[in-house]
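Researcher: Structure prediction, please.
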Amino acid sequence: MRVAVSVGENEKTRGSGSPYFQALLAAGAEESELELVSATDAPHVRARDYDGILFCGGEDVSPSFYGEVKQHDNVHDDKPRDEFEFALLDRALERRVPILGICRGVQMINVGFGGSLYQDMKEDAEPQFEHRQTELGKTRQEATHSVLVTDEDSSLGAIVQGACRVNSLHHQAIKRVGRGLKVTAHSEDGFVEAVESADEYPFLMAVQWHPEEMVDHSPEQCKIFVRFLAKCREAAARR
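Model: Predicted structure follows.
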């Protein structure tokens, strides 16, 4: 089994110390089965070489990819990463590779399916609480609000019974849901917190929070990675 962990350039320098990498190890992966990849690897990264792809957090998706211009000074994009990940997502979908998205990952996947984003939740919507918890002095590992599962028959519904407490580290969120995706969870104040494929697909789950930061003290969050890896192993067995 081989799993690509798509990250930004700074995160890649952390190597096996990356929390995404560590979360997959905690869920049962072997270090040799994981590879951190970034936009600079584009010439030699091929979706067909992997049995699963994890799209991780990082900078904002450029508004140009959902037909808008940048509206706020706190929108910081990374176009080379956008181009790399949209291409990788397209090839992964063609080959029906299991996909997991986290934070930026859920936003990028939604845009890849033709959806759009709130460029800044505070400016463009009406959140009832702070979704970037570090602004409140909380650590990345702390749970700060509840997520309500709205589809109990989904992959997320098989892990979370009704609701769970999560961390929150984002200023953007899904606005228009991409065609081919279904919403499987909302925050308490009504924002999309998780999506999955609306069609038959081996595994496509993406969440707005950061479960990799919570695996050490939340078996429930660890199960997201366990389920993803199980699907990756099934894909590897079919190759």
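Model: Residues 219-238 form the longest helix (20 residues).
Researcher: Thanks, that helps.
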